[in-house]
Write a structure and sequence with these properties.
By secondary structure, the protein is an alpha/beta fold. 33% of the residues lie in helices and 26% in strands. It is an enzyme of class 1 (oxidoreductase).
Length: 429
């Protein structure tokens, strides 16, 4: 896609660094305001994590990962190197500060605050996403089939009820199902699955790369400029911002947005913001179309993965490996998930799949960073959405456009402030 665009665009009002789903949404909201936009990415449109995620629009997924429940489960999960949560042995010491902050964010009072913030962002995210895709003439890429979370024992089902009660209090519709109703929602489930929870308004997209590509086309057709280059440094200059590229050239803009996902931390640090961004390395296998008669996305919560019907096939993926950006992939995790999926969906044909790993940008409190850089209101950060980047993309684009226009944001942004970790760090001392 990148070869179709001019490599030497003119300076812009706003430079958006990062052409994943978050950067694309920001750019789309800005061009809708009539702003002059320069979109920059080192690889191309949606060539990193946004290319092959699970495709869920998880607007009902309001429960933060940082929670008392996860703290209770984590020690057991960590004993299994191929389980739902793992930390590479060579990376564990480097993770300690992040894990300490995660522990602070999992305290009941902090968890409730994060839950409230996540709920507000999700309420904005759903209508914003539908509006965004309608503007890009891509509404047909949204599928409203609902989701089904399944349980292999009554004890597992009972352990999830508190979370469903919190969703009910937030106005989220769901239905607990067993027996014939469960089997009708998804034929072919293993006999070990005894119950489920159906979320009727859960949505998926036909394919996340198709969605991102549609947004990219719309942004370019609306007049945005494009540059494929790696931004190595950012500096404040009189009247704006200077972005310097790996090959030594530079470009100036009046304002800038940092939306480079898991790679955002070093640019924020150059502006004086030490943000504890880590990576949830997620794995998946995409099987050919027809590998299973999948009616909707199936969530295997106890195992930390989902199975999603896409236009490109059946995608089996999820789980969390904390291992940074430099360690090589461990595709045994993909194979292990696929084996579990075959046990839980006995008719699943597992041959012919394509393995993939992506870097989910994650912060200890499970909330993204959306806000001005400490050093200048001319720079806005938009990263750290974890596994909810696609879901929260349009809401983030909407909010960033408001911040750059010096408008009051649609929701309170205090919980998403870039400097909030300075307050959290006081609790580590």
């Amino acid at each position: 896609m990148s070869s179709n665009f001019s490599p030497e665009p003119a300076p812009a009002d706003v430079a958006v660094v990062g052409a994943g789903i978050i950067g694309l949404s920001v750019a789309m909201h800005l061009v809708a305001q009539g702003r002059s936009v320069l979109l920059i990415d080192r690889k191309g449109i949606a060539q990193e994590t946004s290319a092959q995620n699970a495709g869920a629009l998880a607007f009902s997924d309001i429960l933060p990962l940082a929670s008392p429940r996860i703290l209770r489960q984590a020690p057991r999960w960590l004993l299994d190197p191929l389980g739902p949560l793992s930390i590479r042995p060579g990376y564990a010491l480097q993770m300690l500060p992040w894990l300490a902050r995660f522990g602070l964010a999992s305290r009941p009072s902090a968890y409730r605050a994060s839950l409230q913030a996540q709920t507000q962002l999700m309420r904005l995210a759903a209508p914003a996403f539908h509006t965004m895709l309608a503007r890009a003439k891509a509404s047909h890429m949204i599928h409203q089939d609902g989701s089904l979370q399944v349980y292999e024992s009554d004890a597992e089902f009972q352990s999830n009820l508190a979370g469903w009660q919190l969703r009910a209090e937030a106005g989220i519709a769901f239905e607990h199902v067993k027996g014939e109703r469960l089997r009708a929602l998804q034929p072919g489930l293993a006999n070990s699955i005894v119950a489920g929870t159906f979320v009727p308004h859960w949505e998926t997209v036909s394919d996340p790369f198709e969605v991102a590509s549609a947004l990219g086309r719309h942004v370019m057709q609306s007049g945005a400029a494009w540059r494929q280059a790696e931004v190595r440094s950012i500096a404040l200059r009189r009247g704006g911002v200077e972005l310097r590229f790996a090959q030594g050239s530079a470009v100036h803009a009046k304002q800038a947005v940092i939306a480079t996902g898991a790679w955002s931390r070093h640019l924020a640090a150059q502006l004086g913001d030490a943000i504890p961004l880590e990576t949830e390395r997620g794995y998946n296998t995409t099987l050919p179309p027809g590998a299973f008669d999948l009616k909707r996305q199936i969530i295997f919560g106890a195992h930390g993965f989902v199975v999603t019907p896409l236009s490109t096939g059946i995608r089996v993926g999820g789980a969390v490996e904390l291992g940074g950006l430099k360690l090589p992939p461990n595709f045994e995790r993909s194979a292990h998930m696929l084996g579990k999926a075959a046990r839980l969906l006995p008719g699943l044909r597992t041959e012919g799949g394509t393995q993939w790993m992506g870097y989910r940008p994650s912060l200890p409190d499970s909330l993204p960073v959306i806000g001005h850089a400490t050093a200048s209101r001319q720079v806005v950060y938009a990263f750290g959405h974890g596994h909810l980047g696609l879901t929260q993309s349009a809401a983030t684009g909407h909010l960033v456009a408001q911040l750059l226009a010096d408008q009051s944001p649609s929701i309170a942004l205090e919980p998403f402030r870039p400097d909030r970790f300075r307050w959290q760090d006081a609790g580590l001392c």
